[in-house]
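As described in the Methods, two query proteins were run sequentially through the folding procedure within a single session, without resetting any intermediate state between them. The first query and its resulting structure tokens are shown here.
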Amino acid sequence: MPSGRRKLRWAADAIADRVEARTVVVMLLAAAGIWAFAELAGEVLEGDTVAADRALLLLLRAPGNPADPLGPPWLEETGRDLTALGSTVVLALLTLAVAAFLWLRGLHGAAWLLLGATLSGMLVSFALKDLFDRPRPDLVPHGMHVATASFPSGHSMMAAVVYLTLGVLLARVEPRLRLKLYVLSTAILLTLLVGITRIYLGVHWPSDVLAGWTIGAAWALASWLVARLLQRSGRIERTRNQAGAGTL
């Protein structure tokens, strides 16, 4: 019997070590994302990204005609449709719909966390735009109307915040690895498509989009850490799967 207890204790300690290691990895990734954003912001302020920004932006335009995006007219229209997936209206509706679903499931803490992560990310996006106040690209005509500053890309940042947060949320409640990978891959793909279309439509410099992805992903990871801490303290409900596994 003592031997069996020692084995159980060893298994519990091993699981705890793995959980803590996962938390440390996520913390390091979030910190790395913030550091990468700060480094990129410094490069932008010093003008070191101008050449690369111009070259990449023109790469998506017809040779000799910056006013004409690459591809047939329907591709540009498709770009407008896809870029709308990162708009404030679409992301707000999606967030409210998922938060309502969580609330109806009785996961009130998770619903509030999702709303808090999205709203705070949006406020940070607006604050960063006002802080850097970078003009929009003037190298090519804009493929759609824009009114705010350019750095960082709000669409790219908020797409990362919302889709990656939702991806992790859904992956947590799905026990099958194949479906976990599908959900997370879809979230990453949507985030990438939103950012790429911002460049394709000429409304953002590539460095704007990269900065949006970086800080947005860091924000999503930070939200995961907050959720983990609140869940351990009992302020956020655990799903049935998580209660059995003891992890987030």
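Immediately afterward, the second query was submitted; its sequence and tokens are:
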Amino acid sequence: MTQQLTGLADDRALLGRTSTAERVSDILRSRIAEGYFPPGTRLSEDGIGGALGVSRNTLREAFRLLTHERLLVHELNRGVFVRVLTVEDVEDIYRTRALVECAVVRGLGEPPYALDRLRAAVTEGHDCAAGNDWKGLGTANIHFHRELVALAGSARTDELMRGVFAELRLAFHVVDDPHRLHEPYLARNRRILQALEVGDKAAAEELLVVYLRDSLRRIVEVYRRRVGDERDEQPGP
């Protein structure tokens, strides 16, 4: 935790003169998404508050916001922890992704589409793969889907999916083989991009449906092995 707090202190300058719980929650959300605070980590009010130079009340409000986003969980008499997702959580995340991402692609207007940022995400993924940076590839994959959602031009949809993608990262951090998990989807990202480049949004949506279905199956398989399905642990009738 000492090393984590030292690095977190570097973010103090991001708060500027308008330190608010929302700005603190933005910093912590990013750090959680990066795996800086892995699932199950207890967050110290004194340590984090001191590193960021914010009051206890401000930090508690930031914790409350992130708890509402399902990134943190408060355990009575124990403190605040980075949430550990269940299999049910992962399945629900993918249901939400399928509803939103497919609707975004289906609702695109007439081509050409503004795909520069989507292309950049694919390039980012290729660079990570070339450098054997498989966790970085996972980040690039999320960037790809974030930019896909951004094609809708909806700030509300972007905000909704920011939380969904942050939760998804919690699941990724549990995986012990990010190469096997993320590498197969690099080529799929490129095929979705190519379909959109020629204006074939129907083909892009079809590719996306299969992509999300296969990704869910793969990550649930890993998750059952690493975390276990809490439903299976309940006593029978």
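Strands lie at 42-43, 72-75, 79-82. We note this only descriptively and draw no conclusion about the first query from it.
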